[in-house]
Amino acid sequence: MDIGTNGEVLLGSRDRLWACSAPAGPALEGAQLRCGMRAALGAIDRVWLADGDLRVHTLGDAAGAGHLRLGVVDAVAVLLDAGVLDWRV
């Protein structure tokens, strides 16, 4: 998966490969996101739950300075899985 101005998703198995692309810029580029940044030291690129705690990984293992779009996608997925967000709302 690559989400930038366009979003590309590739899904495959041993027998088949699917790919798609769609515009994604307005969804994740500045739309109510205040701490977005380029891929630089301190950018949050992964989010997950471990033992009930929200964990983040930053590029270069530096102090958090902002987030990448994929970090936002991870955070939303984790919060949906944890029941904090409700996709129906």
Features:
globular, single chain, 2 helices, three-stranded antiparallel β-sheet, alpha+beta, 6 strands, 89 residues, three-stranded mixed β-sheet
Overview of the molecule:
This protein is of the alpha+beta class and 89 residues long. Helices cover 19% and strands 36% of the residues. The chain has helices at residues 25-28, 69-81, and strands at residues 2-3, 6-12, 17-23, 43-50, 53-58, 66-67. Strand 1 (2-3) and strand 2 (6-12) form a beta hairpin. The radius of gyration is 15 Å and the shape is globular.
- What string, H for helix and E for strand, traces the elements in order? EEEHEEEH
Enumerate the spans where pLDDT stays under 50 for 5 or more consecutive residues.
Answer: none
- Counting DSSP E segments of at least 2 residues, the number of strands comes to 6
Distance between the termini: 25 Å
Q: Radius of gyration, Cα only, in angstroms?
A: 15 Å
- Morphology: globular
How many helices in DSSP terms?
2
Mean pLDDT: 81
How much of the sequence lies in strands comes to 35-45%
Largest sheet: 3 strands, antiparallel
In short:
With 89 residues, this protein is of the alpha+beta class. The protein has helices spanning 25-28, 69-81, and strands spanning 2-3, 6-12, 17-23, 43-50, 53-58, 66-67.
